Amino acid sequence: DAEITQSPRHKITETGRQVTLACHQTWNHNNMFWYRQDLGHGLRLIHYSYGVQDTNKGEVSDGYSVSRSNTEDLPLTLESAASSQTSVYFCASRASGDNEQFFGPGTRLTVL
Amino acid sequence: GENVEQHPSTLSVQEGDSAVIKCTYSDSASNYFPWYKQELGKGPQLIIDIRSNVGEKKDQRIAVTLNKTAKHFSLHITETQPEDSAVYFCAASMRAGSYQLTFGKGTKLSVIP
Questions:
Q1: For residue B99, which residues of chain A lie inside 8 Å, CB to CB?
Q2: End-to-end CA, chain B
Q3: Taking Cα atoms as reference points, which of B108, B94, B84 lies closest to residue B33?
Q4: A31: contact with B, CB 8 A cutoff
């Protein structure tokens, strides 16, 4: 079955380290998104991509970057992790012309 | 940009009663309003959505209503069951035709058996 996966599911890192979170979908969706979820803030958009080589900043993009070299993957990189980036991160994908965003299971990141 | 307010933040109901969650949005150009359910430890899952050319939509025990003039929309769950316990998020498209969504802060619904 087609799906969207995230790895790792849990990660603990130290302040200043570079961290990359993986997102992989097998639906061949053009549109992919990264959100962070924090208590009291709901889901906030970090970056999104409408296709290969396309990336765009979302509401809370500072300190994060993404790259889209193929349709299936949109890795999220924290260039220099900060404690304020401790959060649960969700990846989502959506087919062009469709409404529904399908979410991955999430990655819980702790920055010490 | 778009701003979505969601109320209440927590809601407890007895099994079998109805639950209502309300959201308001700021951008009159928004035209798509989904509702997501998030169970503990999982990603959000779409349960129902509505477009701006429709006032109400039902799917079994779940319904969504939209008032474009007042810029608010609501989720109604009837005959609640313990498995309805979860966090519910409303969202709005940031502008007409956009794939981006702005989410409310969520409502934790607890259904008491």
A1: 31, 48, 50, 94
A2: 41
A3: B94
A4: yes
Dihedral sign, Cα of residue B37, residue B38, residue B40, residue B42 = positive
Chain B positions in Cβ-Cβ contact with residue A102 (cut-off 8 Å): 46
Which of A100, A101, A102, A107 best tests the B interface by mutation, with the highest count of B CBs <10 A?
A101
* Tens place of pLDDT per residue across chain A (112 aa): 669 999 999 999 999 999 999 999 999 999 999 999 998 888 999 999 999 999 999 999 999 999 999 999 999 999 999 999 999 999 999 988 788 899 999 999 999 9
Query: Of B57, B50, B10, B13, which Cα lies nearest the Cα of B31?
Result: B50
Chain A residue whose CA is closest to B102:
A44
